[in-house]
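Quick entry between incubations.
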Amino acid sequence: MAAIDAAAVPRRAQVDPAAVRIALIATALSVVGILVIVPVVYVFYGALQDGLRAYWDNLVNDPDTLSAIFLTLRVAPTAVALNIVFGVAAAWAIARFRFPGRTLLTALIDLPFAVSPVVAGLIFVLLFGLQGWFGGWLREHDLKVIFATPGLILATAFVTFPFVARELIPVMEAIGSDEETAAVSLGARGWQVFRRISLPNIKWGLLYGIILCNARAMGEFGAVYVVSGHIAGQTDTLPLRVEKLFQEYNNAGAYAAASLLSSLALVTLSIKTALEWKNRREMAARVREATLQEEPTAPPALALAVSNPGVAQPATAPALHAQPATSGVERHLRPVPSLDRQPSNRVDAGGEADRVGIAVQHVIKRFGDFVALDDVSVEIPHGALVALLGPSGSGKTTLLRMISGLDAPDEGAILYEDEDTTNRSPRDRNVGFVFQHYALFRHMSVFENIAFGLRVRKWRKADVDRRVNELLRLIQLEGIGHQVPSQLSGGQRQRVALARALAAQPKVLLLDEPFGALDAKVRQELRQWLRRLHDEIHVTSVFVTHDQEEAFEVADRVVVMNHGRIEQVGTPADVFDHPANGFVMDFLGNVNVFHGRVEGGRALLQGFEVDYPEHRGEAKPATVYVRPHELEIDRIPSDRASLAAQVVRINPAGVAVKVELTARDFGIALNVVLSQERYVELGLHAGDAVFVFPKRARVFVQDYSI
Amino acid sequence: MIDVNRRVLPGFGLSRGYTMLYMSLLVLIPLTACFIKASSMSFGEFVDAVWTERARAAYGLTVGASLVAALVNLPFGVLIAWVLVRYRFPGSRLFDAIIDLPFALPTAVAGLVYSGLYVKNGWLGRYLVPLGIQGAYSRLAIVLVLTFIGLPFVVRTVQPILQDLEAEVEEAASCLGASRLQTFTRVIFPTLLPAVVTGFALAFARGIGEYGSVVFVSGNMPYKTEIAPVLIVASLEAFNYRQAAAIAVVLLLISFSMLVVINLLERWTKRHGSY
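Done. Structure below.
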């Protein structure tokens, strides 16, 4: 539990001496005491020094003070209401979108902080006063703005408009747009996204902004002073009333009115503090839960079972739909599939390989000058499970987002089973998207998370319940539907995200680095689980990964990407055994690279040569790739193709032995993988001089045109 | 990355459109009106209106008192932030909450109380006035009340930076042989500096615009304790709208430049606050 304590109290190795500490605290308390506490106490002292009776008389039996109270209660809430709408709109625009002028707009929101309130009042007098731009028109129509309630509202709204926006923008930026994007991918439309996802997440920030805005609105002095005209009983707000009583030397009355305003300030601060403490407690609880859940034993043994409703149905039927027969009794546990799973399962999902599930046609996407996708075309077979594999920045996630409809291509088209969906929203495409960091709705239970896509599509309640329970069974989390995401382990969150994406029976399932955020053991289990799941539900699926092992283990087909282009498409065996080019070769596992040239049916390299009958013409530069297990080590040179090298280091731990060597004459480092038997047979030691030759090599002739 | 979200998340047009419309109606058009009103004067008239002896005294007092108040808040603000972040003592969380009172307390109340406290027979005035310290109806009074108004700014900008300062940094300094004081002056304070300066600028800007509390405590004596916003009100009450607009333009220009400075400072703080 050390982690919890550390989170609650920051660790400070250095502690100031007690004397210093006490002196500093005493100074700080005296400063705040004299500047803040004494004045506040004095307000109530001044108000109550003649007794409660006099206090009551000064407030309620003074008709002008009473009407000032009511005027303030009319003006401030109206201004606040205007500013709430503005604040929410401004925060949404600024925290969720990038657009020209955004920085300027953000800075302009701070303007009332810098503008003197008197100037704020003045500008409205200049517009709406008798001599103002609209003064004549207003008088003709017998309307009054200045020296009347509308002017007070305008001036108050001006001075207080930053508060709600200022509170919301950092809150919304901190929360991020992942959950909202997930809601869109699940089919929520405009207002639904805001009401169901954003609003619950920002409600405390919003509440605080409103309270602060209200406190300032009720207390505003300078701006309303200028526009009010000081008509007693009509345009004096409470702060103005305080000033008038003060000018009339009615101190008791002034303090009584001021005590009301001070109480408001104290209530505001109390609510603010309570909200902050509540937040802190929630954060601490979240940290505690996260600490507990990250225990290695937390993920349940999910290698157990997948309920099996879809298997007996025609592939065209919506997978996973409700079926009374799929009761707990009939569920059977399937063992973890062995590694020699039927290969036919992987290549084409049930003989439908000819049907195209998704077609990407000549898609181009630029972000400024950066070309993320450069004329990409690829076809994903119906019902297949396909991996987009590539290094970071290769465009694989961008391509996935294009397919989902979360991003739009600059050029090109995306077809779902011959239907052009390029301009359709994710909702209309009916996709399920699993986000890299899951983007679970933190304020909703597991059940509600999964139900979200159904609720926004207005499913009947009974259907929603049935469907969600079915999915909870599928992901083996039946008991925890009521928990919130922060209580789940990483693997559980991942499965909830998957169930949520599958809930509305999507035509296409898309997964962005689905196992990226998990630790190695859970990742391994989930991979196998996902593969089995797909074998049962046959929904056309695409996932992004940078881990070639993951791609090979899970996918029917692999799409290798680099620099916004597709380098190769094929089955895992295809791309591994017959890489289309040097990049694919290099990217899929360790490789030794040799540079040289091809000439007359041979590849001549540093120190050795291999046959290359494909090229019999004139000399061309070439690169040769040899995998570590395709290099052989021997004590004596073979007749023609061996390279003298020295053993640098040996790592015998593992199924195979890894040997690092250098070929001094050519300054190249080599990696070789030997079987344990061969290693023992050779009796290798670091420093040994040996000969290395390739059992198999792949030659890529360099093309001058590039 | 101009429109990363524009397509996916709804409501871009509506939210931006409404934001711009509201700000135009409430802020930009009225401010423009002020500038247009002032520009109806010739340059000579403008200078005559804004550069009278009385106005010069008011500008000097406004800027001077705000500056002194912000300077006073600088060490106090850092001290309070330090105490809040580093020490736990009975009532420390209440103390933390009280710091925000000047934000929440209406300025008229602050003015009323400060004038009451520092007059001859007030709680504090009865000890200070015999010493010759006039804490009400004087320039000192303006500084005092502006110090109150500006107190939270330095504290609240420094506090989060101090909070995020890693303990390891101080530990590293002490392992390298620095004394506690050296650690503060050479390691901690330079890290806090951008936030300190930002807080100072915020408090200063707030002081320049402040009106409500000052009119209570200053006495509003021309040439002596009259601040610039009071001049605007005086011009308005004399129905001299053009002069009011002209002085407002001067104050607005000061405000705008402060806003620019604060924005630059905040960027500096952000850059410095993280790696």
